[in-house]
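Proteins fold reproducibly. Take a sample protein:
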Amino acid sequence: MKSSRVAQDIINLANLTDQDQVLEIGGGFGILTKLIAERAKHVYVIELDSNLVRALHDMARDYRNVTVIEGDALIVELPRVKKVVANLPYSISSEMTFRILRELDFEEATLMYQKEFANRLLADPGTTEYSRLTINVRYYVEVQKLLEVPAKSFYPEPAVDSSVIMMKPRSKGSFAKDTSVFQWMIGGIYPYPNKNLQRALRIWFRNLGIEKSRIDEVLSHLVGVLSGDERLRTIDLEKLISLADVLLMMIENGSIEDPRV
């Protein structure tokens, strides 16, 4: 079966050792689960479909290092693991990715996504794929493409191609002084990715009931970093962090209402 070859390729790229505790999301019939179990110390596999849960339990009889968790991966308590390996269901790709990033203290996550979604994770500033998703993911992790998987690699053949991505916690660059303010800001301005920064701030501040004169105050603290004329799609992570830190300063001095309360 072609999908078995894809699963083997994923395992070969996932850097698994016999000391690893691994999480798999969406175990299906256990093709990937079995391969993980053969290399890792333990694999926890989450599956929602009760019929597939039974199939996973049947497969797990041959292994002492497989724990099957029946339930919704967006809701169930996640086991504490250092590695994640999964062919994520496309319908929950975004929500599950952020759950992994925010809740797990992991070392590496090897994840298969719809190719279009993966391209947004990998996008550079200035490209059409660079978006709020890109920024929010790259705030937490470094992202690397490992493998492209054509639709014809599966039977039955899906409608889209896929990509396998490796994520590792970001070790370079700065972080915002308050991550919640950074996320609040990204959510506020990036619905308008094709507008320049000053225009996006004007719309956002108007929606929040903040005087537009505060925009000049924001930009005055960013001389040499941001002018306000930059289109949002071109602004890199470091500059956005600088912007978030200015907003935090203005919250703390009372110029802007605190969104955290």
About this structure: The mean pLDDT is 95. Residues 143 and 167 are 5 Å apart (CA to CA). The first strand starts at residue 21 and ends at 25.
